[in-house]
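Dear colleagues,

As part of the handover before I leave the project, I'm documenting each prediction I ran so the next person doesn't have to rerun anything. This entry is a single chain, and its sequence is reproduced below.
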Amino acid sequence: MGALSGSDLQTLLLSRGVTQCGTAASVGVESTARQAYDLALNVTIVLDAISYFNPAAKAACETNIYPMLAETGSLLEIIEVLNRISRA
């Protein structure tokens, strides 16, 4: 289960026009990203803000799983994109 289960978070996000959902923790990142993706939210994962128990898990997630579910990037890359969007 992701962070959107059993709460009114989805309703709250949608009522405020939020379409971006970001996650930043190893435990629960994939399940929450999958759930947000299934709910048609645009998911962003900040790769350098996630901790992992081992390097192999990090590589597998960043290479094979997260790109299917989300836009990914470093914190600085994502801030740059958001700044460009806010100026448009």
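The chain has a mean pLDDT of 87. The beta strands are 20-23, 42-46, 71-73.

All the best with the project,
I.
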